[in-house]
Amino acid sequence: MLPRATVRTPRTPPHPVDEILPARRMLPAALQHVASMYAGLTAPPLIIGSALGLTPSQLSALLAAALLIAGLGTIAQTLGVHGVGAGLPLVNGVSFAVVAPALATAATQGRDSALPAIFGATLVAGVLCLLLAPVFRRLVRFFPPVVSGCVITLVGISLLPVAGTWARGGDPQAAGFGSPANLALAAATLVITLTAHRMLSGRFLGRIAILIGMLAGTLIAVPLGKVDLDALTQAPLFALPTPFGFGAPQFVPTVIATAAVVMVVSMMESTAALLALGAVAERPVQDRTIAGSLRALGLATVLGGVLGAFTSTSYAQNVGLVALSRIRSRYVVTLCGAILVLMGFVPVLGSLVALVPLPVLGGAGVVFFGSVAVTGIRTLTKAALGTGHNALIVSVTLAFGLFPVLDPDFYDRLPAPVATVLGSGITAGCLVAVLLNYLLSHLGRGTEADLDAISAEQVTALDTAGTVPGESPAADWSPFRPAVSPSGTRDQDASGTAHPAPLWPYLTGPVDSADTHPHHPPREAPAPHRPSPPPGGFPGDALAEDIVFPGPFHPLHPRHPGPGLPRERHGAEAADPWQDPQPPRPPATAGRPSFPPAAGPDGAGPATG
Fold first, then answer.
1. pLDDT, tens digit, 9 for 90 and up, residues 69-101
2. In this structure, are residues 391 and 385 in contact, taking their beta carbons and an 8 Å threshold?
3. CA nearest to 115, candidates 183, 37, 169, 49
4. Within a 13 Å sphere around the CA of 166, how many CA atoms are in the beta-carbon half?
5. Is pLDDT of 348 > 80?
6. Residue among 276, 299, 271, 336 nearest 123 (CA)
7. For position 209, what pLDDT does the model report?
8. Relative to the CA of 27, which of 162, 257, 385, 413 has its CA 20 to 30 Å away?
9. What is the DSSP string of 496-513?
10. pLDDT tens digits for 113-169?
C-alpha cells in the first residue's frame, strides 16, 4: 500500500507586531531605539542630580536606576503578560515632567530631604496609576479620528523644539550653544540619514537609516572635538541599584499632590503615544490595551520609587522611529529593554551610548519627531473635516496645544498644579480635544463623531444586510430608507424611542408607471416572496448588527430624510431635491401620497401608459 500523501496547509504569517526578526536584524534595530531614547532618558536624573549637588557615585546610582526601570518597564510593555503591558513596541522611560516639581521640592524641603520626599511621592503616584488604569481604559471611545489625530499631531509638533535644542548643543548655558559647528553637525546627520533612507530603500539597511546617520555623525564629530571620551574612564564597571539607597521614603502631602498631577499628565501622554503607535503599527488600540499599558506604567513607577527612579512615561520619539523604519516587531523593543537593563547594571555600556553628541541626536530627531506628526495628519484625514464641528475641534485643539510650545511661560501666573497640567502641550491639547468632541458631537444635534465611528465596510453591509445573494440590494434596502414597523404607523430608534410614521411609505411591488418615481421605492403592492435566510444569515448581517444609531438626527437613521433633504416635508408641494424643476401639477388623489411622475422612455417627459 502506498503511503498516504501528507497535505500541508500554509501557515498564516504573523502580524508584523508579533514577528520575530533574525538576530542580525533585531540587534541593530534595537540599538537604534536605545540611541534615540538615551538622551531623553538620562536628562531628568542628570538635571535633578546636578541641582541637588549629588556626588559622582550618587549621580551614577541615579542614572543606573533610571536605565534599569526603563528597561524593565519596556519589557513589560512589549510582552503584555497577564494584563500588564500593551503588547506593542512601546518604550518606557523617565518623564521629563518631573523635573520642575523635583526642583521645587528641593527648594522647599532642602537638598538633604528632597530625594526621600520625591521617592515617597513617586510610590504613591505609581499606586494611583494602578488604581486609575480601569478608568482610563474606558476613555478610548472618546478618541475618534478627529481627537486621536489632533493628539498624535501635537505629540510630534511638541517634540520638534526638543530636536532644535539638541541640534544647537542641548545646554543653553554652554558657550557653544547654537554655534555654526553644532548646526552644521546636525544638518550633516540629517542629510546622511535621508540619503541612507533613499539610497538603501527596500533593504534592511534603509530601515536603520537613523542608526547609520547617528554613527556617521558621531564619527564626524570626533575631529571637531564634540565627543567626550572622559565618560568612558569615569563610569564604574558594575553598579547594582540599592532599594531606598537615598534614605527611607517620606510622605509629604504637598509633594504627593504634585506627583499625582505629574502622574496624570504622564498617563495622558502615554495614552496619546499608544494611540499613535497603534496607528503606525496598524493594530488599533482597544480599551484593554490602554489598561495594560497603564498597569505597566504604574508598576514601573512604584518600582522606581523603591530603587531610586522617577515617574515613568511612554516615549513618543520611538513611535516616530517605528513609523520611519517600518520595523513594527515588539520583540525588537523587548531586546531594547534588555539592553537598557544591562546598561543599568554595567554603566560603561551606557557611556558608549553617551558618546553620541546632542547635535547628532538633534539632526536625527527632526526625522522621527516629524514622523509622529505625519502619522497624526494621516489620522486626521479619516475624520470629516469638511463640516463645521470637526474643523472647529481641530483648530481650537491645535491652538491650545501649541500655546505652551510657542511660549513656555504662557501659564506661569496660574496655580502650580494647573500650570503643570496645561504647561504640557500634549496634555492641554488632549483635554481640549476630548472636551470639545463631547460638547459638539455628542451633546445636541452633532453627528460627526458617530460618522467617524462607522466604518465604510459597515455602511456597505447595511446595503446588503438581509438580502438574497445575487439580488440587487438597491431593489430592497437603502441606508436612507424609512424602516416601517409591522403596523406601518410607528417606528423605534436604537434607544427604543417611538417616532411618528416615516415621511413616505415603504412598500414594494409593481405598480403602474404613472405612480412611480425614479428615486423612490414602488408603492401599494404586497412584498414579494423571499426565501428563508440560510444558516448564519445573509451576507452583511453580522456587520450590520454591530451598528447602533444614537437618535433621529443621525444621517443613517430611519427618520433622517437623507443627504440634502429638509427635516420635514409639507404635503405635495414639498421640494424634492432629486427632481429637476417641474411645472405645477394637479393635486394628488385624496388618501394617497403624491410623487412626481416618472420619466418616459426617452427621459424627456412622463411615461404615458
1. 999 999 999 998 888 999 999 999 988 778 878
2. yes
3. 49
4. 27
5. no
6. 299
7. 84
8. 162
9. --EEPPPSS----S---G
10. 889 999 999 999 999 999 999 887 777 677 788 888 888 788 788 878 888 888 898
**pLDDT recorded at residue 9:** 58
List b or e across 429-466, with b for residues whose CB sees 16 or more CB atoms inside 10 angstroms.
bbbbbbebbeebbeeeebbbbbbbebeeebeebbbbbb
Short-list 461, 473, 455, 471, CA closest to 545: 461
Hey, what's the cell of 254?
504637598
| pLDDT for res 535 | 57
pLDDT at 546 (0 to 100): 47
What is the SS3 assignment for 308? Answer: coil
HSE-up of residue 59 (Cα within 13 Å, Cβ side): 16
Shortest CA distance to 100 belongs to which of 304, 320, 255, 296?
Answer: 255
DSSP 181: H
The pLDDT, as a whole number, for residue 92 is 92
- The closest alpha carbon to 442, from 455, 431, 451, 454, belongs to 451
Contact status, residue 192 vs residue 211, Cβ threshold 8 Å = no
Rounded distance between C-alpha atoms, residue 531 and residue 468, angstroms: 8
Which residue has 422612455 as its cell numbers?
601
DSSP 322-338: HHHH----HHHHHHHHH
In the block, cell 475641534 appears at 393
CA 86 – CA 289 distance, rounded (Å): 5
Q: Which three cell numbers stand for residue 608?
A: 404615458
Q: What is the pTM of this model?
A: 0.61
Cβ contacts of 91 within 8 Å, gap of 6 or more: 33, 37, 70, 74, 77, 314, 315, 318, 333, 336, 337
**What does 80-103 look like in DSSP terms, one character per residue?**
-BTTBS-SSS--EEE-GGGHHHHH
DSSP E strands, 5-134:
92-94
Residue 504 has pLDDT above 80, yes or no: no
Write the CB contacts of 107 (distance below 8 Å, at least 6 apart in sequence): none
Q: At what angle do helices 253-281 and 145-168 cross, to 10 degrees?
A: 110
